[in-house]
Amino acid sequence: MNNQTLKLRRVAIDTYHENVAYLHRECAVYRAEGFQALSKIRVSASGNRILAVLNVVDDEAIVTPFELGLSEQAFQQLNACADCAVSVDHAEYAASMDAVRRKINGERLSLIDFESITQDIATSRYSKMEMAAFLVATGQNSLDRDEVYFLTRAMLETGQRLNWGELQVVDKHCIGGIPGNRTSMLVVPIVAAHGMLIPKTSSRAITSPAGTADTMEILAEVNLSPEKLHDIVRRHRGCLAWGGTARLAPVDDMLISVERPLGIDSQGQMVASILSKKLAAGSTHLLIDIPVGPTAKVRHMRAALALRKLFEYVGDQLGIHLEVIITDGRQPVGRGIGPTLEARDVMQVLENDPVAPADLRQKSLALAGRIIEFDPDVRGGYGFAIARDILDSGRALAKMNAIIQGQGAHEVDFTPGRYCHEVKADKAGVVSAIDNLQMAKIARIAGAPMDKRAGVDLVRKTGDAVSAGDVLYYIYAEFMSDFEFAEKLVEQNNGYTIGEKTDVNKFDAFM
To answer: Is residue 254 in a domain?
Structure first.
């Protein structure tokens, strides 16, 4: 080896959607090239190249002066063997950062700008700090409807696009913000049992205690290759998978990895994220659920109508048949908040268990019915009855079990976290409001979704009468530190308002 090459070392660190390289401070190449910590470098080996963010280390247990270390993701992307010779040089400047700076200054970006930005993100030219700058710029200065279309199209072009060879491929998506709202896991088996193709790919949670992929992972494998995804959907007419491993709009997953810790979820980014993923998954017909309520993402009907227009405009530009339904978002749906508890609720509904949460069942039937009405052989208004018959007959449960087996069934245990705290009513009255944001925050502080058994289990819902000392909900956690943080948060605000029956807000108040 000459002084321009190093030995490749696999450093077992998960850097979550960011390529990271490690050089020793005494490395001759590091000194000769004038690298600095957090600068971007290009790594080459066996004809393959990747870009990575440089970390400088002083511990030879991590890398010696004669080695280059790569994090797990970077090592897999380089696709070279450990101990092989690698070369390192400076990465080219990401020219699209000029467009990001223009957006920070409030300028409007073109399709070419967004294509350059997403291409640079896809090829790891952006560090997480630079992706954060892009997200803040597009969130703070907002995107007009054409910019949202440009961003959606650009994100779509960075990954694979599935083609199912059928005229109608259906899907649904909720914009989020309502804890426990696991309707997708009921809609998919109902619609698939009807015979319609519904390949549901979902993201993991961004700012919520669980996403569909996090909850489905309790029951089955969700990290599916494109080949396995195709096989399952062809065989069972549906799936419930994570979109990341299928490389569907991969820039979306990279941006989500930054959005999650920052708690960013702007409307323009949200529309682009949802539609790019759905189009990449091959959807031709899509139902969007926008919940409205005082603590939902969308607080008023006028904002919901504006968001519906934005979805419809971008969908029309991209050639997808899109319908938007505005639903009641005044409180959590179901009882469980957190992956394990939400999976329990879903299976109770599918099994027609008498204790299954009625609101989750009814909302899922309404959504499934609307999708079934995409079927040209179904008359308008008949979808709900068809969906109800599929659920009541056990056909939806049989379909869900088939999908679970196809994806790879997990051993299921719905036992929640080992630490439990009862939250009780401090006075008699009626539950007049439940704060979605606070309940989601409590569940996240308790450990969800990273700790699958953590979360909140609701006992009382809006409109229920309570006496002083009645249990409102349980908090579950796997670790004592999370448990104590959640208890302190509840002491400040338990998320429930106890008042009179006349204090309960009606959904039509948001119309």
So the answer is: no
